[in-house]
Design brief:
Layout (H helix, E strand, L loop, with lengths): L1 E6 L8 H7 L4 E4 L10 H5 L3 E4 L7 H6 L3 E6 L2 E6 L3 E2 L2 E2 L3 H8 L3 E3 L6 E6 L4 E6 L10 E10 L2 E11 L4
Parallel strand pairs: 1-2, 2-3, 5-8, 8-10
Antiparallel strand pairs: 1-11, 4-5, 6-7, 9-10, 11-12
Length: 167
Amino acid sequence: MKKILLISDTHGYMGTEILEKATIHDEVWHAGDWGDMEQTSDKLCSITKVRGVFGNIDGRSIRKTYPEELFFELEGLKVYMTHIGGYPGRYKEGIKAKLKSFKPDLYICGHSHICKVMRDKLLDLIHFNPGAMGNKGFHTKRTMISFAIDNGKLIDINLLEYDRNKE
């Protein structure tokens, strides 16, 4: 079993609530728009294993470190992650073809700053968008998702919600 902390759209923010949760998870997955490399990726990598993709606001250092898309399998669960991809019924152009080809059990994206957990019955997958943990954007709450993968199954799925910090 692996415990995963899923975040996105930190936009350079890496508060103690993220770092503390990272210490009790086996991996942190970031769905893009990291912001500053030293403030985000470097801090997380010093705590636990990190997987992620770059987002539309990310600069050269993040783009050199993380790909635009990630396809992988963990504990028998197939995962596809990208930053901008849409959601069931409203996929970005080209995403549905990739989902049909790779056939992930879990499809993850960020970008919208809106937390979503949805099932796509047609493609037989679960979609996660963890929302945004940063303070930049229109969202009023900062969110991330904690879950576990056990023998190919998603278990213990929890939404972690925080007030937005004033800047």
